[in-house]
Write a structure and sequence with these properties.
The chain is an alpha+beta fold and 129 residues long. It has 2 helices and 6 strands.
Length: 129
């Protein structure tokens, strides 16, 4: 039997202007759209401050996961997009702060830019509910 995807809704939804759903729940799995340092009102936070952007990104991940009936402890896979791989050590530090062993599977890539030029990091996750 095929599982039907159920959109995860948050209010306010900062991704709505971009025609992006914050996440989808399919069975016991939750797939989040890429999260970045965009406030619930749609403002970019931490312009030029990687640490502030990373904190806001994780705050957004927590918000969407909670709306889908999950939390950070249930993340099984993360994909992290950086505009500067020099921030990789901060990602390792963040992984130790936000996750516990056994750590989620992870892919980290450097990209030339993200959807909005001020963004320095974007993270998408797969979690269980």
């Amino acid at each position: 039997m095929s599982e039907k995807a159920q959109p995860i809704k948050i209010d306010p939804d900062p991704l709505a202007p971009y025609a992006i759903c914050p996440g989808q729940k399919v069975g016991d799995l939750i797939f989040l759209s890429g999260q970045a340092a965009i406030s619930p009102r749609g403002e970019i936070l931490g312009n030029g401050d990687f640490d502030a952007q990373l904190r806001q990104t994780f705050d957004n991940i927590e918000t969407v996961l909670a709306a889908g009936g999950s939390d950070l402890s249930k993340i099984v896979k993360v994909t992290i997009y950086l505009t500067d791989m020099a921030n990789f050590p901060k990602i390792v530090e963040a992984r130790r702060h936000y996750f516990t062993a056994p750590y989620p599977a992870d892919t980290i890539v450097e990209v030339s830019s993200l959807a909005l030029p001020e963004l320095m990091v974007e993270i998408d996750v797969i979690a269980t509910s």
